Amino acid sequence: MASRRVIRDVRSVGRLIAGLVLILLATSREVHASLLSPEAEDTMATVLAIVILFVVPVVLIVVFWLVHILPEQIAHKRNHPQFEAIRTLCLLSLAFGGLLWPLAWIWAYSKPVMHKLAYGTDKLHEHEDEEVEGAVEGGLNLRQKTLGLHERLARLEAQNIPEAELAKLRADLDAIETKFAGHGAR
Fold it and tell me: CA-to-CA distance for 186 and 183, rounded, in angstroms?
C-alpha cells in the first residue's frame, strides 16, 4: 500500500514539473541556441577561422621542425663523430615527412661501431674543447704576463742598467710575444 502511494506521489510531482516547464516555454518570447548575440557569434567565428587558417599551421610547422632537429642537437652535445651524417638524416627526415626521424634519434644516442678502433676515441675531436679553453686561459695569462714583463723592463730601464742587457731583454720579450701570438692564431 505504501509503495502505491509513493508511486502516485512521484507521478504527481513529475506532472507538476512537466506543467511548469510547458508554462515557461509558452511564455518565453525568444529562444536562442547560444549565450552570445548573433553579432558576437559572427565575430568569434571570424577570429576562430583566422586562427585556424593562419596561426595553427605555422605553429605546427615550427613544432615539426623543432622535433626533427632534436637528434642533431643531441649528437652535437655528445660530440658524436658522425654528427654531420645525423644532421643530413634529420634534413632528409624533414623532406620525407618524418619517416627517418626515429633512425636519426637512435643514431644520435648510439656509439659508432668500430670508430674507437679506427680513430682511437669514441668522440669527434675529443681534445678540441680542452685546447680552446686552454688557449683562451693561456692567452689571458700570456697577456697578463707580458704586461708584467713590460712593466719590469720599464723599471729596469729607469735603473741605469747597461743598454746591451736591456736590448737583449727587449729581444727576448719580442721573441716570446711572437711565439705565443703565432700559437694563439692556430
Answer: 6
Quote the CA–CA distance of 15 and 99 in Å, as a whole number.
63
58-67, 89-98, 127-136, 167-176: least confidently modelled range? 127-136
- Domain of 102? 51-119
CA geometry: angle at 77 spanning 92 and 93, to 5°?
10
- Greater confidence, 88 or 177? 88
pLDDT at 130 over 70: no
Radius of gyration of the chain (CA): 40
Helix boundaries (H) for the chain: 2-27, 38-50, 56-68, 70-77, 83-95, 101-109, 115-119, 128-158, 163-184
For residue 170, give the C-alpha cell: 727587449
From 67, 98, 119, the end of a domain falls on: 119
User: Does any domain span residue 23?
Assistant: no
The answer to whether the CB of 168 falls within 8 A of the CB of 138 is no
- With bands split at pLDDT 50, 70 and 90, how would you rate the model's confidence at 44? very high
* The CA-based dihedral angle spanning residues 13, 18, 23, 27, taken in that order and rounded to the nearest 10 degrees: 140
Our count of domains for the chain comes to: 2
